[in-house]
Write a structure and sequence with these properties.
Low-confidence stretches: none
Oligomer: single chain
Order of helices and strands: HHHHHHHHH
Shape: globular
Distance between the termini: 23 Å
Largest sheet: none
Length: 218
């Protein structure tokens, strides 16, 4: 974060990120060792909401927020590494997968490239779905949720600022709505609740609310 003029470096947040990543890695490698290790993704959502909202609110306070610059910065930060992963998977799959398996991989690569893996995976879920172990790009579901959230959230903050509204009220109302939707649908459609951005947005918005409190209400 040192390269970002809008946010000071936070070693404590880097440490929390490391804990979140380790939880997920250990869970995938040794699922019986840390059965709840997937909570690392939830922690990461909160951290992401905190950092990105801090950047947006600080930029808005200075009158410097630019939506194109915001999206451009995210693409430059994420897409190069993502592209390496996608190309590696396509190359490795060419030599190791059957035709139908490679076709499925191609669909997941295309979905990952445009940040909609979560929606594609949700659509595939069901009795005849392939085991998770055979979906090398399964982990991109969380990136899809994140990017879909940031496609909408900055626009809402900009609209609120233009209408002279209260950003904190927007954040809290959005958080409560997303959480209520999560609770309401969890029994009817647990897979959809897991993959849909509108039912996971509350986790990012928890970070957003902390960012606003830290900036303006502490």
């Amino acid at each position: 974060m040192t390269h970002n003029q809008h946010l000071n470096y936070r070693p404590d947040i880097d440490g929390l990120r490391a804990v979140a990543v380790l939880l997920v890695l250990i869970f995938h490698g040794f699922p019986r060792f840390i059965k709840g290790g997937f909570i690392g993704v939830d922690i990461f959502f909160v951290i992401s909401g905190y950092l990105i909202t801090s950047i947006i609110l600080k930029s808005q306070a200075k009158g410097e927020f630019n939506l194109i610059e915001f999206y451009s910065r995210r693409i430059k930060r994420i897409f190069p590494a993502l592209l390496v992963v996608l190309i590696f998977c396509l190359t490795f799959g060419w030599f190791s997968l059957l035709a139908e398996e490679y076709q499925a991989l191609g669909k997941h690569v295309a979905a990952g490239a445009v940040y909609i893996s979560n929606l594609v995976l949700q659509n595939e879920s069901g009795y005849f779905d392939t085991d998770a172990e055979f979906k090398p790009l399964l982990h991109l579901w969380s990136l899809g949720i994140e990017e879909q959230f940031y496609l909408v959230f900055p626009l809402l903050l900009m609209l609120t600022a233009r209408l002279k509204g209260d950003a904190f009220t927007l954040i809290i109302l959005s958080l409560l709505s997303s959480f209520a939707l999560n609770v309401f649908l969890i029994d009817q459609n647990p897979t959809g609740v897991f993959f849909f951005p509108q039912t996971r947005a509350w986790e990012l918005l928890v970070g957003s609310s902390v960012a606003h409190v830290n900036l303006y209400q502490r």
